[in-house]
Acyl-CoA synthetase
Amino acid sequence: MATLGELARLIRSKNAGPFLLTFDVMFGDEATYRRVIASGALTRARFAALYRLPESEVMLFHHDAARAIKISIPRPCVQCDPDDGDAYGGQQHAPLVELVVPN
């Protein structure tokens, strides 16, 4: 087994406006991209559990041409709210790095 961080070329999170966060998981080759999708390691349900969200709030898309998986979720608070600890959303991808991808 490997982690998503070991298999992906890039894992990042960022703002998608003041109300959404978006996550990009990009792969360097088609075989690895297909392996991760087929493993079921990164689905709406798994992402929701990892980030403690209702599955209905998780939007997940496969972009085959880019060998990428894109996920968008509501921000826990509006960007730059006094309770916002990550105004740019750039630190939210960390839990994905250690996500185990079964063989």
The longest strand covers residues 20-26. The radius of gyration is 14 Å.
